[in-house]
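Deviation from plan, reported transparently: acetyl coenzyme *A complex.
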Amino acid sequence: MGLKRTVSIIGTGSYVPEKVLTNHDLEEMVDTNDEWIFSRTGMRERHIAADDQATSDLGAEAAKKALADAGVKAEEVDLIIVATLSPDMFFPSTACFVQEKIGAKNAFCYDLGAACSGFLFALECGKNQILAGAAKTVLVIGAEKMSAFLDWEDRTTCVLFGDGAGAVVLQSRGDEHGVMDAVMGSDGSLADLLCTPGCGSRNPASPAVLEQRMQYITMQGRDVFKHAVSRMGKSVVLALEKNQVSIDDIKCFIPHQANSRIIDAIGRRLGISDRIYLDVAKYANTSSAAIAIALDEAVNEGVIQKGDLFVMTVFGGGFTWGANVVEWCK
Ligand code: ACO
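Because the crystal trials were delayed, the predicted structure below was used instead.
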C-alpha cells in the first residue's frame, strides 16, 4: 500500500545579501527620513545585492540551504520553480540559472510571475505537480533583486523594497496534512496601480521609455494599501473555511511583508495581532521572497514547531492575492 498522497515542506532556507541599507542611508540619497519611513511602513533597513549578484545567485544560496535542511541532494530535485518579478533576464528562466548553480541536473525548470504573491502561487503549483504524480521532489524559490528595478530618485518607491530569497523543498512523505488547500485570486483590471510599465513588449526599451523612467516599478500606494488589507484579510478567512480549520487553531500567521501598517490592519480585523510573524523592519518588502524568508526564520526561531498549523497570505501586483494553511511536519 502506497503512502497517502499529501505534500509537505521538508526543508527551508533563506539568504539575504551582505550589504545593509538603513533608513538613515536613504536620507543621503532622496528627500526622506527615518521617522517617515518607519512610521508608515515599519521598515528600518533592507539588504541590497552586490553589483555582481543577480536574482538567481540569491535564489541559489537559499536553495542550497533548503536542500541541506531537507537532507536532499540537488540531483534528486526534479522540478525547480522560481517566483520572481526581477528575473536575471527575460529568458532563459531564472530557475534554469539556479539549476546550473546548484547542480540540480535532473530537474525541469520554470519561472512563475505573480509579483509579490508569487511564492504562494508557486508553492501551490509545486504541490499540485507532486499530487498529480509529475514530480517527486520540488524546489520552490521566491527570489528578488528588487534594487535593480527601483528608481533610486523616486522616494515614494525606493524606500519600500529590499533584496533576498527564500526556498522550500517539497515531497510527499505520507504526512496527514502538510501543505493544505490554497485560495488564490487575481484582478487584471487593476494592473496599472502597481507595475513596471517599460521595457516589455507593450513599451519596448527605447531612449524615450528610459527617459520617462518606465523601466522602474511604479505604484499608487494608497490604492495598493486598501486592496491589500481587504484581499489578504478575506483570503485568510476563505482558506480557513476551505480547509475547515478554526482561526483559533492557527499558531502563526505569515503575511506578505509589504508594510507593517497593512499587516496591523489585517491583524486587528481578524483578531490575530499577537500571532503574526513580522520581519519587515529588517528586510523591507522583498516581494515574492518575503513570506519564504519569514517562514524560514519562524521555523529557525522555534515559532513554528512540529504539528503546528500556520497560515500564509499574500498580495501583489496584478492584482494577485491568496492564502493557504500548512501543517508543519518536521
Ligand atoms: N519620505 C518622505 N516623504 C514621502 C516619502 C518618503 N519616502 N514618500 C512619499 N512622501 C510624501 C509624499 O510626497 C506626500 O507628500 P505631499 O503630501 O506633500 O504630497 C506625503 O509623503 C504623503 O504621501 P502618501 O503617498 O499619501 O503617503 P501614505 O501615508 O499613503 O504612505 C505608503 C505611503 C507608505 C507607500 C503607503 O501608501 C503604503 O504603505 N502603501 C502600501 C503600498 C505597499 O506596501 N506597497 C508595496 C508593494 S505592493 C505589495 O507588496 C503588496
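Residues 32, 36-37, 40-41, 116, 155-156, 159-160, 194, 219, 221-222, 224-225, 228, 256, 258-259, 261-262, 285, 315-316 surround acetyl coenzyme *A (CB under 6 Å). We consider this an acceptable substitute for the interim report.
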